[in-house]
Design the sequence.
């Protein structure tokens, strides 16, 4: 089995990050604007991409506010083979920041799709960070790969020229 | 033996030759990864990536023009990286390139692994910007190295 792991420091409280991970409004801010998410263990989340062509459905397996969120994928046509994989977000306060660890476990093969998903998670976690720190993420529909690496000071110029290439 | 690996894949609007240059010319490596890059990319040679007073040295283990660049992290650098293998494979696709990245040989997937996986994704997007637009965003990145 092959696992994805990412770690990112976010200048926000665990409570705010927890809300961004456990409410549909929160998910709309950083991952995909086209999503539904229940609020209790045993419920489901449905995340839609590319105008509904990509759909991933998870069962909410664990909620431990504001420390841990766990999902199990029950259906998905995402690259890499998500069905049966588990996704956990762990939050640990460190001063005024929170360390977020993502583990997406249980891929059968370290395939090209697995690689694509790994890069994708890194992108969306920076989008989550920017959503919480600046109020503006870059979720699906507004995806802009360059945005996640650009320093804040270099953004105004892009807004003036219309933003995305 | 445990062998965890980081994999990334990025589609880039540039020919493999432009990417190969950005991966093998120390001056270009400085523009998307580590600003203080020294040495020369030659088979068996070494590249030095300086983070302040710390150096990460890479032995160049394979070079296939416009196709493949492989490095091995030496003992001179981060302990977690010693002996790990880094591979950039360039696959042409209709005038653009799919970059397949691997960083293999990690003894454990905890600690620095998650941070390095994030970090590599951001730097590979920096490389994409460098060859597509002409400007990369090398270390330190505001978002992940603050």
Sequence:
């Amino acid at each position: 089995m092959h696992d994805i792991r990412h770690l990112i420091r976010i200048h926000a409280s665990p409570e705010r990050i927890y809300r961004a991970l456990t409410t549909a409004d929160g998910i709309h801010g950083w991952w995909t604007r086209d999503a539904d998410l229940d609020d209790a263990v045993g419920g489901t989340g449905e995340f839609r991409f590319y105008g509904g062509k990509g759909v991933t459905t998870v069962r909410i397996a664990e909620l431990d506010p504001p420390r841990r969120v766990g999902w199990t994928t029950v259906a998905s046509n995402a690259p890499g083979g998500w069905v049966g994989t588990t996704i956990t977000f762990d939050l640990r306060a460190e001063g005024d920041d929170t360390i977020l660890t993502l583990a997406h476990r249980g891929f059968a093969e370290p395939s090209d799709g697995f690689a694509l998903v790994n890069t994708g998670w890194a992108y969306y976690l920076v989008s989550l960070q920017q959503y919480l720190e600046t109020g503006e993420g870059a979720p699906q529909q507004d995806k802009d790969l360059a945005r996640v690496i650009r320093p804040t000071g270099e953004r105004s110029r892009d807004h003036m020229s219309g933003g995305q290439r | 033996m445990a062998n965890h690996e980081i994999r990334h894949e990025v589609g880039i609007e540039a020919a493999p030759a432009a990417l190969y240059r950005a991966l093998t010319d120390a001056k270009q490596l400085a523009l998307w990864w580590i600003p203080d890059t020294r040495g020369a990319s030659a088979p068996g040679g070494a590249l030095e990536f300086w983070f302040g007073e710390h150096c990460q040295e890479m032995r160049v283990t394979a070079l296939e023009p416009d196709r493949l660049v492989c490095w091995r992290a030496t003992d001179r650098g981060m302990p977690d990286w010693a002996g790990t293998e880094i591979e950039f494979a360039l696959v042409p696709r209709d005038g653009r390139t799919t970059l397949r990245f691997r960083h293999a040989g990690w003894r454990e997937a905890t600690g620095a692994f998650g941070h390095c996986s994030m970090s590599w994704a951001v730097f590979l997007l920096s490389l994409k910007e460098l060859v597509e637009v002409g400007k990369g965003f090398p270390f330190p990145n505001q978002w992940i190295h603050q």
